[in-house]
Amino acid sequence: MNKAIMNFIIGTVLFYVLFCGVLYIKQRSMIYFPDTSKPQLPQGAELVQVTGDDGQKIESWYIEGKDADKPVIIYYHGNAGNFSHRIHKAIFYLEAGYSVLLAEYRGYGGNDGDISESGIYNDARTQFEWLLENKGYNPHDVIIYGESIGSGPAVQIATEYSAKALILETPFSSLLDVVRGRFFFIPVKHLLKDQYLSADKIQSVTYPVFIIHGDLDSTIPISLAKKLYDAANEPKKFVEIKGGNHNDLYSFHAYKYILGFLSGLEVNNPDNVEK
User: What digits encode the pLDDT tens for the residues 83-97?
Assistant: First the structure.
């Protein structure tokens, strides 16, 4: 082997190691895209202020629905923006009588703190507990809703509480699978700090699961949502939106499918859901 080839191999290896090192150090800034601005509280919403067991303070919004007999929806939003950007989705459920807690995370929506998987789980858990302690809900009165990366905390909380149902919009089997699909040449299993192993966790959820995903999703391939669905227990339902991408499912009336699912959840028979 001549010297030029040897130098090329050494240079390539060094570049690869350096590239992996940069990805490892910068990974969370490449994964999370928060809107850090604090939104103005809209009329009719209640400011929720909680403190987690790690001392992290979080503010979010609770909006009372018009039907006190209906469950409450706790909404864990997706990666970009903040919780206030999902109020246009919450309106459909509020109009149908459901109350909604638009949950927020550290590092998003005016909240301080460093974003991480464990931190987001802590924030999600603290706000779920707030519903039980301050609004008098039973876990069986709570519908857990997770959008995109918010499906991670949604599935995690679903493993910890016996809620009424779990709704997942554009979810993944794991963030590890998403990243592995993009960086197949990197040992991501050993480098990725926040893996969100939802497909492993969802196997312990025993109440109704509803998943909705677009077949043209360019952010999270629909195959990863189907992998998550396959891992879930019955009763479960999967809705595939033809022509839907990652952020436009409500333009395809996703809320109608979700409201239809919710209407099938009888108060005393949560297993009575279309499969």
Answer: 999 999 999 999 999
